[in-house]
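DUF3592 domain-containing protein
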Amino acid sequence: MNKIKYITCVSVHCLLLWLGMSYYQQYREKDLIVKTTSPIEVYILDIHYRAKSPNTCDVIYKGREYKNIIFYSNKIIKSTFNNNFYYHKDKDWIFCKGNEQVLAIVDFILFGLSFLLWFIPVERFSLNW
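Predicted structure tokens:
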């Protein structure tokens, strides 16, 4: 049973660490673009509001349509121009500045809390639901 606990705890730690690092890398990349470039003006074609996943929109920038752009503001209105978006030239994608930093912080907090798994006694640790 001790082997199962060890494998589970190490797997959870590795997964949360990997997620936190990827969120942080994404945040740094977007933050660099926000600091070095100016916002672009896009035309909002359609807005997709969702309850459990992020809101997305379809936009047109320089005559090209970009779909499923995640946005975090309620100020976006369909069929209007908006300049809260940024363009990544190397990857050819558009993004709206959002809360990637919060995602990274939450994940690192969960990573720290996952060390509490080691305090569960081996007798009580089971993977049975």
